[in-house]
Each structure stands twice: as C-alpha cells, then as structure tokens.
Design brief:
Structural class of chain B: alpha/beta
Oligomer: heterodimer
Largest sheet of chain B: 11 strands, mixed
Number of strands of chain B: 13
Distance between the termini of chain B: 19 Å
Number of helices of chain B: 16
Helix content of chain B: 25-40%
Largest sheet of chain A: none
Radius of gyration of chain B: 20 Å
Number of strands of chain A: 0
Strand content of chain A: under 5%
Distance between the termini of chain A: 60 Å
Chain lengths: 73, 473
Amino acid sequence: MSKPATIDAALVRTLANIAALPLAPGREDVIAPTLDAWVRDANALSRKMSALEHWAVTPATVFVHPVQPEEKG
Amino acid sequence: MAGDENQLAQLTLAEASQRVRAGEISPVELVDACLDRIAAVNDKLAAYISVYAEQARAVAKASEMLIRAGHWLGPLHGIPIGLKDNVAVRGLATTAGSKILRDWIPDEDATVTARLRQAGAIFVGKTNMHEFAWGGTSANPHYGSVRNPWDTERFPAGSSGGSGAAVAARTCYGAIGTDTGGSIRLPSAINGIVGIRPTYGRVSNAGIIPLAWSMDTAGPMTRTVEDCAIMFNAIAGPDPKDASSSSAPVVDYTADLGLGVSGLRIGVVPGYFFHHLQKPVHDAVQAALETFEDLGATIVYVNIENIHGNISAQLTIESAEPSTYHQRWLRERPDDYGADVRTLLEIGEMLFATHYLQAQRYRSLLRREFLEAFKSVDVFICPTLPFTATRVGEMKVVIENGIEEDMLSAIMQFTGVPSLTGLPSLAVPCGFDGDGLPVGMQIIGKPFAEATLFKVGAAFQKGTAFHQRAPAL
C-alpha cells in the first residue's frame, strides 16, 4: 500500500518546475487541493491495475493494424 | 406573424421537414421563426456566441428555390441547425468558447459541418460552450454563462450547454454537440432533450477543436429521438480526414424507430446505477425502467466487477490529453484562459505518465467487462447524471445527506462509462423533479449499435410525453 498523496504548494511548485511550466504567484494554492484529491484517486486506480489479476491488460492506446490484402502487380 | 412563427418553432425537426417537403412551409419561414426565437431569448440564455442571420436567410432562400424546382436533398433540407462553437465552419469564427481562438477563422469546414451542409441544413449560429469543452457547467467567462431555459437561474450543464439550451428553447430544430466525458449527454439531460454520444469513431472529429483525442466524439442534440436519428444519418460514417474514424458500415438509423422493445434485455449494474442519486432522479429512472417492462422489455441485473475507478480514470485521461494539446498556449497566454480551465490544464501537466497509462489500461479492462456483459443484455440503462440543474456558478453539488461534492467529479458519475469504453450512449428525457427541472437517462449500447439505441429511445417516447413538455421561456 503506497503512502497517500499529500500535495502542498511547495510540491506543486516542484512539479511545475519539472514540467517546465511557469506558474504565476499564488497558483500553487489553487492547484494543490484538487491535484491532491485526483492523485490520491489515481494512485488507488494504479494499485488496482497493478494487481496480479490484471497483469496482462494492455492500455487502450495500442495500435491495431488491419490486414490489407496485398496488391498483385 | 410573430405568433405563427413561434408556432413553427414548436415543430419537431421531423414535422418541419415533412411540411417543407410538402411545400406547406418554406425554409425562409423556418429560419425566420428560429431567428425570432433567438432574438427573444438569447439575452437571457447566452446560448449562442454567433448568430448567422444574414447567411441563414440567404441559404434559406436558395433552399426554397431548389425545393420548388423539385430538388429536395433529404429530411434536413431547409432545416435550421445550431453548431457548437468548437466545430469549424469555413470562413466564420470558431472560438471553442475561448478568448485564445476568438479571431480564428477556419479555411475549411469540419466534416460534420460539410455533411450537414451537403444534406441541406441551414446553420443559424454557433452555440456557446464551456471554454475549450473542458468543464461541465458552460459558465463561460468570455461569452457569458449559458443559462437553463427551464429556469434561467440554473445551469444548463455542459460542455455543450449552448446547444442544449438552444434546442430546448426552440431556437433551432437540432444542434451539434461534442462529448468527451459527457458533454452531449449532460446538457441533454439537464435541458430535457435528446442527445447521442456515438460509438468512438462513428462520427468524424475532423475539423473539431479537440479536448481529449482518445475520447472525443460529436453528435446531434434534438427534441425527439426521431429527430436525433435523422441528423445522425447525415453525419455518421467513415472519414479519411480522421485517423480515428471507423470503416464500419452505416445503416439507416431511422429504419427501426417503430419496432418497439418487446423482448429487449435491459442491463442494470446493481450497487452503481441506482446508487448515490438525488431522489427525483432515482425515481424517474426507476419509473422509466418500469415503463420499459410494461412495453415488453426485461430487466437483467449484471455485475461489472471493476466499474468503480471509472471517474478517476476519466479525470486523469481528460486532464492529461487537453494539457498536452494546450501546452504552448498555457505557457504563452495563461491569462487568456478562464480560471477553472487554466487550473485544470495546469493540473494535467502534473500527473504522471504511469497514472495516464494505468487509466488507459483500466479502460481496456472496463471495456472487456462491458462487452462480456453484452452477451446477456442488449442495452444498459442508468441515469445520465445523479442530480438536476444546480444554480448558475455553483462548483459544488449536494446529492444526498447534505454533503457538498466537487461538481466535476459528481457530474461524471454515469457518463464516464461510455466515454472510457467507447460505447454509444443515448440521453433521453424521462421525468422532472419537484421544481420542474428535467431528469434524463442514458441508454448504453454495443459498439455501432446506435440504431438499437434510437429504437429503444423512440419506444420510450412513444409511450411517454416528457419530451413534449416545453420550457415556459
């Protein structure tokens, strides 16, 4: 079980720096509560999807190439 | 004359179309009726960002001449339609409800626009929306907050709130909306109209400003299921301009409207579909299920083991993808976004790639479970959202026990399932709460089973009258 997220203004500033996203003063306090709630839920979903029973599930982002009949010259 | 034109605006799309074809009314009269309604109510609703009065009248006159000459193009010929303002129209501003795109003039129609144009539809204007479609209230800081025609102190939901309000207020006979996480279905339910989120890939997204590429869809919003199927006929189908477009064959989506639901198996997910709802919503959707049983359908309870988690998955994907699309503007013009959208875009930059990919893996899992469940049912039915229209500007909602919840998460409780799985979903009005505010249900189908959804929705509307009630505005 991972530790619950506790995202505060300082951590938001760090994450923005990592993303090379300039934040205007005060934005951290606006972002932190919602980001904290979403990351907690996202971590819970990650734990669910990391379970052994789901190990073979692939993401919905994979490409599917339909087979095209070869053209005859 | 004004009274006659108001009567014309009350016609359904199908009724208007039949009368146009029979030569009983002219497209010019229909356009005038809609423009009169827009003039009468748009100040109160802020449903339109642009109104194309001059262009619409010119096209209507040309349509009238064509029809008189015997060249009837089909059931949309001469019918006034609204387009959400993230759908490109050649030569006319397409803002996506934003300040950033205020002056953007597309040089090409979106495929949806082109297909409606080809079918003879007349565009009366571009409808207001939540900025860049990223939100469910349609409280737009740049073009005014859209208001609900049933009570202008209430919100119209979103993001296609302008389309919803425009159709409900009888300012057009149908409108195009877009739906990523619920943006057609939510305003359809809240405004008491019909709207379909198609199977992902069934309707082209080419020429539509994206929100989240892997979930974006476009579809019609109308007053009746029949009208919705008529519009869907015009816009569905493969499109080489859209890489996500499906080559699956289209059918005549109006063909099965009269077949009824005898023998239909309706799936309900216990512990989720009727859980955590305002009572009027619960009661209205429960009554709708009983109506379906009276019409010959059977209710089947089907467990979807991993249905919990869908809201988080949706928020993660719907954050990360828009933040990718908006990355440059967010750095160069952050002050040009509204406060809520700016915050959401900033948050989307701070989620991890693993969060995003676990959410995408969850989609695969959820889709697999629903496809398995469709071996024992034909459709699923659930509420479209757990509450009726809140007051304009509210960002919290009380669903039960007096507890305030975040609007964005709460509004997605039921719309996330089709968005994540790519399944089609039809929103149909099914009741009203004690304040006279509409309640909607969604009918979820198998991939490419839109014709079945229209059949089920039409059977419900044949047996009920919720769709015939009009706001007093």
